[in-house]
Design goal:
- Two copies of one chain form a homodimer.
- By secondary structure, chain A is of the alpha/beta class.
- The first copy, chain A, has two domains: 3-141, Response regulator (Rossmann fold, 3-Layer(aba) Sandwich), CATH 3.40.50.2300; 147-205, Orthogonal Bundle (Arc Repressor Mutant, subunit A), CATH 1.10.10.10.
- Chain A has ten helices and five strands; from the N terminus they run E-H-E-H-E-H-E-H-E-H-H-H-H-H-H.
- Chain A has a five-stranded parallel sheet, sandwiched between helices.
- In chain A, helix 4 links the parallel strand 4 (80-85) and strand 5.
- In chain A, helix 7 packs across helix 9 (177-191) and helix 8 (166-172) packs across helix 9 (177-191).
- The N and C termini of chain A lie far apart (46 Å).
- Mean pLDDT of chain A is 84; it is low at 140-146.
- The A-B interface holds A 10-14, 16-18, 20-21, 24, 84, 86, 105-111, 114, 160-163, 165, 193-198, 200-201, 204-205, 211 and B 10-14, 16-18, 20-21, 24, 84, 86, 105-111, 114, 160-163, 165, 193-198, 200-201, 204-205, 211.
- Chain A binds a DNA duplex through helix 9.
Chain lengths: 211, 211
DNA sequence: GAAAAAAAGGGGTAAAACCCCCATGCATTT
DNA sequence: AAATGCATGGGGGTTTTACCCCTTTTTTTC
């Protein structure tokens, strides 16, 4: 019995191409392909559509890789997710692993490594490269969870990533400029930032804002 | 006689996967795969390695797609380049077309479209989707070339994409703060920006700075 | 229901950013 | 020789940010 694989990626070309690669591996078969997380969750409502492994991109519209992985881990814990991404961003990788991904592959992976990863996930239940393992060890020492942004603060950060002044942002969010300054100050403290430029860079690097 | 295709992309998985797709098309064969522009130029030194079509990614280390395409157009004008990218950035697309690319495909393209593009490039010498055609028409009216940043201004912009104050940037560039302000003001005018946030976003969106 | 935490708003000061308009020196062009 | 372009630096002003420390109101928690 071949292991059933589903590939999820919004870039159709990449999606079909990776599907093609997996189809070439002897002990794997491609069940179907999805363009985003929402499409996958729809499909999974039918038991015949439940795969053994999901190869999942992280940056997707509608429902991204992290949220989708979380959902899968709750509803279908038997499905093993391997993240697939060009993102080398440490925090993103960690978020994905926390969401329950069993492996993480950079997109500059060789065909053989993909096969190896698929096989290891089937046999051992996980696949981690050296890079990822080191990251995991590092994450134990750092207290990442301490930084928790409020809903309204995230909203403010998105507005801060434009040419608007704080006064204008305040108007847009129906708040006093002073409240906005309050948000800013508490964010600066939490994230150890010096000025708005730093905030913008933080937002971009952590996916809160896409330029 | 099959048309010879070379794929250039730094993401190995994508590289191999696209190679696989092209291999499946009847009238095309994959000569070889490259991880960046430099590797391609090395290969081309041997006449037997000269393909009919190059499928080229834009963002690559060592020698990016735009520079590589320029080089190809000078030395091997018979080779037709099709750009392949996730970038939807207008300016990047235009740069690539100006460099001499005969076609431009987003990575969310279907397998059939890729085949269609390859065939059209062989037959007509070019392949442009509606989106690209509209862009081309638009570019004729706008005088994009007017905006020309000086060497030193670009250097300043890179520093502006950090938490440094202008005073600190001035020290780092061995200039008076007033000179820095001069750079800033002329850049704001040229690029129609309101403040430093806008500058940072411009820099990121146009590849002057990678966060 | 009281205590604690958070969200929202405020005052004041100093620094940074922004915006004009101007001067010098130096190379290239005409 | 005059003109142009450009890099560099400056004066003096306003606006916007940053950074203090503080109060009131709402929400959460025990």
């Amino acid at each position: 019995m071949k292991n059933k694989v589903v590939v999820v990626d919004d870039h159709t070309l990449l999606l079909e191409a990776i599907g093609g690669l997996v189809r070439d591996f002897e002990n794997f078969e491609v069940l179907y392909l999805c363009k985003n997380g929402q499409e996958l969750l729809e499909k999974l409502k039918f038991p015949k559509n439940i795969p053994d492994i999901v190869l999942m991109d992280i940056n997707m519209p509608l429902l991204n890789g992290i949220e989708t992985t979380k959902a899968l881990n709750e509803k279908y814990p038997q499905i093993k997710v391997i993240a697939l991404s060009v993102e080398e961003n440490e925090k993103t990788i960690l978020k994905m692993l926390r969401a329950g991904a069993k492996g993480y592959l950079m997109k500059d992976t060789k065909k053989e490594i993909l096969k190896e990863a698929l096989n290891q996930v089937v046999e051992k239940g996980y696949y981690h490269t050296n890079t990822i393992s080191k990251l995991l060890i590092g994450s134990l020492t750092k207290d990442e969870t301490a930084v928790q942004l409020k809903e309204r603060e995230v909203e403010f950060i998105e507005h801060a990533c434009t040419e608007m002044t704080y006064k204008e942002i305040a108007e847009k969010m129906f708040l006093s400029p002073k409240t906005i300054e309050g948000y800013r100050d508490s964010i600066y403290e939490k994230l150890n930032l010096k000025n708005r430029i730093g905030l913008v860079l933080y937002a971009i690097r952590n996916g809160l804002f896409t330029p």
